[in-house]
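Thread title: Can someone regenerate the structure for this chain?

I was given the following input by a collaborator and told the matching structure tokens would be attached. They weren't. Posting the sequence so someone can regenerate them.
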Amino acid sequence: MAAKSVQAITLFIVTYVVLIIFTLALTAASCYLGIKLMEYISSSITFILGIGLIGFGFMILFFLVKFMFKGNKLDRSHLLEITRTDQPEIFKMIDEIVLSVQTDFPKKVYLSNEVNAAVFYDSNFWSMFFPVRKNLIIGFGLINTTTADELRAILAHEFGHFSQRSMKVGIYVYQFNKIIYDMLYDNESYDKVTRGIASASSYIGIFVLISDKIIGLMQQILVRVYQVLSESYSKLSHEMEFHADAVAAVTVGSKPLIDSLLRMQLANRSVDIICNYYERKIDDCVISANIFPQQILVMNFLAQRNKLPFENGFPQVSIGYYNRFNKSKISFSNQYSSHPETDERIKKLNDLGIPVAKPSHEMANSLLVDQEKIAEKFTAQIFQHAVYREQPSVQQLSDFEADFFKENDQNSYPDIFNGYFDYRNPYHQFNIDAFDLPTIPSELSIEEFFDDTNLSVIYELKALEADLTTIDNIDSQVINVKTFNYDGKKYSLADCRAMIDYLKGEISKKNEQLVLLDAKVFEYFRFLAKENQTEAIFKSLSIKYKQVAEEFTVQENAYLDLANATRFMHTSASKEMIKRKMVVVKKEEKKFKDCLIAIVNNDAYASLINEEAKIALAEYLKHDYKYFGADLYFDEELKDLFFAMNFFGGVISERHFLTKKELLNFNAKLINPVFS
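Best answer:
Regenerated them for you:
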């Protein structure tokens, strides 16, 4: 693969050099013609035309080489450089790995707040021609959620990259990517200069227009060549990842790297949950001094809730759990991805099956000096951009734990349902007469209704729906690929319509399967309610949920239709397009307002709408806003619209959730009377 990548790099360089030669020839010719024109015909118009001709070639030439003169400042404000004096144990581990892998020591070692580790180099245009030493980043969130062996395996993987000569290819690809980006998107200064030149004279403007057309063609050529380069490098990159994994396995053993790779997703998700938690606490002016003990707490909570085993103090994530949501059968042979799929990496590591020679199960964070001080520094980084109305108070870990568990209880359904109702709603397609029919004992137990097999059907349905959207985008060329793989077979663009029909059929089958299961669950609880002599309550709660669910469907559609209609407001659009789109906005807004008026006047929503919101909604409802006029958006009107939309979306979701939870809590009590 390295040879193919080198060939692709050569193709890119040759293409670029040809364009440079063509541009130099064009510049020389335009200069010659411009000078001759001014010599032979002496007038102000020919002088301007001559200047335009001379500048014409130089504009194209400057466009092709402007990337060479750009600064390359890398923001390292989020990184903490560490030295051998600061962190002797970390550097001792690095020394051992460097000796074992027989590679170079990193130029610099940094810590970050991420759940990751990576290699990077101080790369600029000239680094393609001169050797560059690599730097190492180790995420504190990673150190916090691994054992010493697992951290050693991850670092050995990164040093596996240090030892790869093919990393040099990556420097070329990285730089060419920057060149392409500069030519396609980073043209603000260039456009400003050329527009200024064009505005000086309509005659010069002609040459600016022609140069723009030629530059556009050059961009298209370079992008196509770069696609070839990216695809070949992606395949090489996959080989490099597998090689680095093998280096880690030989250095430490297969299992530590497998365990850390599988746990990383859970560790990352834990940080995301904590960040979302504190985002909700901005109005309360509450922060944390150190989120990393909370990361462990949340990660262990998620593991326990999902019945994951623990080993050496950490959750052991299986490949089945890791891939539980990833049921998609579509792939593009990872044409442009830099990393292979995790399950591919796990399989190869398992095939190697190299045991750990000297196991070390201590927590990796115990290797750090002043770990709490470092953790507090990275926590402060996370909160630094949040704006509080007053000095925030620091929440203690025990208070976070109590509040987090309380929030989780309030915002989740009973554990006995195994997460089934996180993705499905209770059956509400029944007729009222159904409650008069005789009840029959179920052949299935509660555990069988909500086992992993039935949950898997839900995940498969979600994957089919996502695959349908993807193939529809391929068919309409929103995703620009010529071929794709589905369930191990290769398909072309011409197969998209047939695949769309096939997926719609599969989605219909899965939906029918789940609706049948939902109906059986409904009958199961109806039977239990009758046995417990609480059928009247079950009937009342079921009918209440049915009404709310049907109402919610109408409300959600009104909200989504308006959200889709207003999406263009978040992008740049021409005046004519805005006026056309605004007609659709006003049409969808009428349906939205009808739904909004209905909830404002409905006592069932009274507890969910505070006085401040009532005043804001009343202000919005009494006006027929235009939102746009005289070539400008009316910001205050849009502010009222988006407040109303966001509030409406939150209120209808909250009522639906509370009604659904009320029914499910009752059902859980039917199974286990001590449930609360």
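The chain has a mean pLDDT of 88.
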